[in-house]
Amino acid sequence: TKGVEGTSKGDVIQRVNNNMSHTSLMPGVPLPSVTLPLMTGESLDISKTSGKNRLVVVYRGAFCPFCKNSLVDIQKNLSKLSDANIDVVALSADSIDVTKKFADENGLTFPIANELKEPEMRTLGLYVSDPKDYQPQTYRFAEPAYFLLTPEGKIRYLCVASFPMGGRVNVDDLIMGVGWVEGEIKRNPAFQDVIWGGK
Predict the structure, then answer these.
(1) Which residues does the UniProt record annotate as the domain Thioredoxin (predicted)?
(2) Is there a domain that residue 15 lies in?
(3) Which of 2, 24, 102, 154 is buried most deeply by CB count within 10 Å?
(4) Does residue 124 form part of some domain?
(5) Residue 40 lies inside a defined structural domain of this protein
(6) What is the torsion angle, in degrees rounded to the nearest 10, for the CA atoms of residue 64, residue 117, residue 39 and residue 151?
(7) Where are the beta strands (DSSP E) in the chain?
(8) For residue 69, what pLDDT band results from cuts at 50, 70 and 90?
(9) Can you tell me whether residue 45 is helix, strand or coil?
(10) 125 alpha-carbon distance from chain centroid
(11) Is the per-residue pLDDT at 106 higher than 60?
(12) CB-side exposure of 129: number of CA atoms within 13 Å?
């Protein structure tokens, strides 16, 4: 039996069964080590922090207008993020050439990692989409997400979406949340062990 746009009932069941294997990361655990190439030709392990909080932003690709808007907003607020002791790295499945063009066109100066593969997407607990459904590209891509890492590389906040409009960071809210947590830790060092959503 064929359903919407020629999709068979069997296809739908198979997709549901495949999605049941999805696993999510939990707050309070270290972000898995994933090393990807940067536009500069260097490599970056997205889990390795440098004494700062780290905002790791997963975007769908240069084709996505929602991602463009999100990344441009982050670029506009880079100085505020830096003042809040937060550095930024973004990543997608796009090639280096595609990312270079995208970054140049939109004035993005923070590190952007490339060539995220499906096994790495699964390792990070991301939702994966197939471009053959509506995009003229050959590689699968991850739906949006972001992770806020502590200076020790543990996940403090995460937001993982299964659809294009989700998983978008509000910079002002994030900065307020980080500032509040750091203030509480100064008053009570044991507060650094508080984990939201980790049960």
Answers:
(1) 25-186
(2) no
(3) 102
(4) yes
(5) yes
(6) 100
(7) 35-37, 43-45, 53-58, 86-91, 112-113, 128-129, 141-142, 145-149, 155-160
(8) very high
(9) strand
(10) 10
(11) yes
(12) 21
